[in-house]
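Figure 6 in text form: structure in, sequence out.
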């Protein structure tokens, strides 16, 4: 048994040899896909536990029996430094164990729609030098809408995408963990470092993060648009653009039939409190509630841009080059002339074009611009908001089976005016930042009883306190939670607990190390009040604003038309241009803004 297998057996309390082999193999696969520092951290953590076991028990982890491992776990949990290390290791290890709780991939029928025709060519097969009227970098929410607009105007458009194309075959034929590791940058382990660290997963695929998102669709709130109008953002007629996006994505309220018990309990709890709540509006026509949105919809029901705007762009003549990482934008005498992209084998291709649209996402766009020598604006990479999110689980007497139903099903908007949006979001254990309590066999029991947990998540409208450093390929992301945002998250914890208790939860799992379970609202309020930011196990799914657009030249790297200042021929059209966090799930807003920007490209 190697150190990783020993750590899996010990921290997750797994005794069955076959289970152990399966989960340990998953943990190794996760480690392999992590960025080097995280990989080193996980492997070093496993090695450290093994050494500790030898020092304190005289045996390696694999020499301990089950009771010995439990005693060792108790010692690890008793010391803050080792407890923190074990908690960090639990996230990837639970991912390896937890995704196995998903229902088996469905039999090969029942697709809501077939995979569309896409003119995709892998970079390996793309010629070394070609020309186009426009190059769009990134095929996600913003890039897809920009590519479609330009192609429909008769331009020859090439979309460069670092990820590869995934189809329903991948989502139906491969286990959830494999899909997870393939669909996310850094195996899903991108972190913003700071106080506290925040998990910041990002999709990397044809369709970008829309392939893995939850399909929740909110229109940009009016008060946000008013603020943006004052900043000079192109929000006139924004309602029409949102209509166009909604029509493309076929957005509609999620029918009750597929919500699943997780969503129904959220509705019931909110109703008992007299709180405003409803099934979310989603872009998932034909959703059957299989809760797998985060690893690619096996039914092609979730209608990401890989199923609509990109095929429409291709119909109008656009071409997509996959596994092509834009290395730099080529510039001559202050004017963009094309893009150089790296193939997986390290060779390069160049596409010469007078129009470049950067849509690589909030954390990558500033890096690409800096690599291209276009990162001179002092505000580039600064002022990132992320919508930090935390979650809470209620334990019910009856099975909830939260992974059967819509993954993100119900919105509770009672506190939205205060910047708190609660959404019933049920990923299987490990696939969110929610840490089940305990170590060893007690954690294993929690895992086995996870079918009785209902999970709520809450995100908050936050201060733009993040920053993307780095000039090469690795983003160094820093995010420090503002004091008032920490207070808002504590309030969100209590609000979620109230909903769960009102729905009949016997107890609520807080994820807080000092008080992992509470029996009533008063206990939860006390526990939340004592929680330090580091206790809040934050994740964030909506980074925005690292290349803000606006009228103020000094404060915005991008002008109101989406043009990067200081160079001719470069537009930015992704989440990085948003002037502030929108306070709601942002995909519709990003797409509508990309339409506005692309419409203005001459
Ligand atoms: C798990 C999860 C769930 C979410 N759920 C929701 C939801 O329910 N509703 C909602 O509104 N929002 C949701 N979001 C957020 C939403 O999907 C994103 O905000 C949105 O997709 C961002 O759009 P974008 O165009 O900025 O970037 P992306 O959609 O991330 O696209 C950027 C693309 O650029 C590519 N790229 C990056 N660098 C390069 C390069 N150098 N060369 C070539 N290609 C490159 C990337 O591989 C990626 O495919 C979720 C996000 C996550 C992570
Ligand atoms: S819940 Fe998500 S993955 Fe499952 S069918 Fe609906 S959209 Fe697809």
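Output sequence:
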């Amino acid at each position: 048994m190697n150190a990783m297998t020993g750590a899996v057996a010990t921290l997750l309390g797994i005794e069955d040899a076959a289970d152990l082999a399966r989960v340990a193999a998953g943990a190794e696969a996760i480690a392999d896909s992590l960025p080097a520092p995280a990989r080193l951290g996980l492997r070093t953590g496993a090695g450290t536990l093994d050494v500790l076991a030898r020092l304190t028990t005289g045996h390696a982890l694999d020499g301990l029996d089950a009771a010995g491992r439990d005693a060792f776990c108790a010692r690890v949990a008793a010391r803050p430094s080792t407890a923190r290390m074990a908690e960090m290791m639990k996230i990837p290890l639970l991912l390896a164990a937890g995704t196995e709780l998903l229902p088996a991939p469905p039999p090969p029928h029942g697709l809501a729609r077939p995979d569309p025709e896409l003119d995709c060519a892998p970079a390996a097969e793309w010629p070394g030098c070609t020309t186009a009227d426009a190059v769009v970098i990134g095929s996600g929410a913003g890039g897809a809408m920009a590519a479609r607009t330009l192609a429909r105007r008769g331009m020859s458009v090439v979309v460069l995408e670092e990820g590869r194309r995934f189809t329903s075959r991948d989502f139906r034929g491969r286990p959830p963990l494999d899909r997870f590791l393939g669909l996310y940058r850094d195996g899903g382990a991108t972190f913003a470092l700071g106080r506290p660290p925040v998990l910041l997963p990002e999709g990397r695929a044809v369709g970008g993060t829309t392939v893995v998102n939850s399909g929740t669709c909110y229109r940009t709130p009016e008060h946000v648009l008013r603020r943006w109008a004052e900043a000079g953002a192109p929000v006139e007629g924004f309602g029409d653009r949102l209509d166009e996006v909604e029509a493309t994505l076929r957005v509609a309220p999620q029918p009750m039939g597929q919500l699943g018990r997780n969503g129904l309990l959220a509705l019931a709890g909110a109703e008992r409190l007299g709180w405003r709540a409803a099934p979310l509006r989603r872009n998932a026509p034909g959703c059957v509630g299989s809760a797998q949105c985060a690893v690619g919809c096996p039914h092609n029901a979730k209608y990401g841009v890989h199923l609509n705007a990109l095929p429409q762009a291709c119909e109008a003549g656009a071409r997509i080059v996959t596994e092509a990482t834009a290395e730099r934008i080529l510039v001559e005498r202050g004017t963009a002339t094309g893009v150089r992209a790296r193939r997986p084998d390290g060779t390069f291709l160049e596409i010469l074009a007078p129009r470049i649209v950067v849509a690589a996402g909030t954390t990558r766009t500033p890096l690409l611009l800096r690599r291209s020598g276009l990162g001179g604006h002092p505000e580039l990479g600064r002022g990132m908001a992320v919508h930090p999110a935390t979650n809470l689980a209620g334990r019910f007497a009856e099975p909830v089976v939260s992974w059967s139903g819509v993954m993100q099903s119900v919105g509770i908007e009672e506190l939205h005016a205060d910047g708190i949006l609660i959404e019933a979001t049920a990923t299987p254990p490990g696939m969110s930042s929610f840490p089940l309590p305990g170590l060893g066999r007690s954690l294993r029991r929690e895992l086995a009883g996870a079918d009785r947990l209902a999970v709520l998540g809450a995100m908050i409208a936050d201060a733009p306190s993040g920053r993307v450093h780095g000039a090469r390929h690795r983003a160094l992301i820093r995010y420090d939670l503002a004091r008032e945002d920490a207070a808002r998250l504590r309030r969100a914890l209590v609000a979620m607990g109230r909903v769960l208790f009102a729905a009949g939860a016997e107890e609520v799992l807080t994820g807080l190390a000092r008080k992992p379970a509470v029996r009533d609202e008063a206990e939860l309020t006390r526990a939340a009040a004592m929680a330090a930011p580091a206790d809040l196990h934050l994740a964030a799914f909506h980074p925005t604003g690292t290349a803000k657009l606006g009228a103020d030249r000094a404060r915005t790297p991008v002008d109101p038309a989406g043009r990067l200042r200081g160079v001719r021929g470069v537009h930015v059209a992704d989440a990085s241009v948003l002037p502030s966090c929108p306070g709601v799930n942002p995909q519709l807003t990003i797409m509508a803004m990309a339409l506005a920007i692309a419409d203005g490209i001459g």
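Caption detail: The longest strand covers residues 325-332.
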